[in-house]
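Dear support,

We are seeing what looks like truncated structure output for some complexes. This example has two components. We would appreciate it if you could run it in full and send us the complete token output so we can diff it against ours.
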Amino acid sequence: VIQLIPVRGLPEIREGDDLAGLIAAATDLEDRDVVVVAQKVVSKSEGRVIRIDSLEPSEKARELAGDERDPREVEAVLREAKQIVRERGPLVIAQTRHGFICASAGVDHSNAPEPGMLVLLPDDPDASARRIRDRLQAATGVDVGVVVTDSFGRPFRQGTTDVAIGIAGVTPIIDLRGTKDRIGYELRSSRVAIADEIAAAADLARGKADGVPVVVVRGLQLAGDGTAQELVIEPELDLFR
Amino acid sequence: VIQLIPVRGLPEIREGDDLAGLIAAATDLEDRDVVVVAQKVVSKSEGRVIRIDSLEPSEKARELAGDERDPREVEAVLREAKQIVRERGPLVIAQTRHGFICASAGVDHSNAPEPGMLVLLPDDPDASARRIRDRLQAATGVDVGVVVTDSFGRPFRQGTTDVAIGIAGVTPIIDLRGTKDRIGYELRSSRVAIADEIAAAADLARGKADGVPVVVVRGLQLAGDGTAQELVIEPELDLFR
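Here is the complete output from our reference environment:
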């Protein structure tokens, strides 16, 4: 049995806060737990927040924003984007510098520390996950995995699901190629994006509007390590694109 | 706390088996549980299985198969496909008649009842979920949700995640539009594909190679109903496509 345990009682997170220390104090971690942390609190603790009135919109940002969106917010999106994948009105799907493809290059004004601020993705979410993991280990002595998540839309299907944007002490993909089924055929769906499934599972325990940014996944029998960068697929190899 | 409980001890499922009755006998269900059932056993119980030697490959199937795949298997894929979305060598990404976009239109030889057989997706996975739900209720008296799942690849990211292809007694999407965050902004990621997150979560407890086709998700505080068809997005509305 796997348990999805919401971590309640965390304070509002601000720049410079010891996020891992606060998590360690709020819950009893066990070896092999996977601690799933919403990107928003990671970004806030790292100061990846900007004041919207510090941004001077470019011509392109004004054009995309039209009357429907604050052009300064669109400017933040353009600055965070390595490449614009799709634009429709003020909506922008972009590839981030990490290679992720998501709405607004991950720029978000919801759950910001205060009005007039935007939250950006961490500079290096895999490094964020690793820092949190190391700090949790130092604080508690237990060996846990960490997954940093965000809510991404996706092609072909309605709605968002949470996915892994940074990981540490968790394997991103379980490769079952070569695993035979009961009658000896190789399994078709042979590479499972387990880190994304962990992210999605944790979201079930989070309650989006409740502000529970950390969920512990207990009971996974997983070994391994890796990065969320391994989940990014090169366009030329992407048969679904 | 949410629990993901694998249901062990189910026999190999064959056409005509009372799948819901077998599930009810193998586990103690509680009101509000969500019973997550892998498509493979649903299809087998419904006889959605064909013998590969009953298929006469078309010219198109031979051409796609080349030397790399059994052309009769490709023929099955073409028959199940409403539209071919992408083809590369023998690999085919297709839209199924249900509107899902996935590898091989869901046709699979792994975990087939015996060698030389292919498993197809259920004709109407939402109807399958509803039948299973009704039968579980009749057998146990408890009111559960049902999610029928398959493992789908997706654009932009490596690996597969399990998604919902049929549901009953579960809402496919939680719409948080209009929900305000703590400082009053509308939440950006406002429509959560909760049925897909349930599917992904259940896969964590399944162990792909272990043959545990049914997982109970306990502790979700969900109401509502709907269909997996509501998760399909029209191409012209699909900003990510």
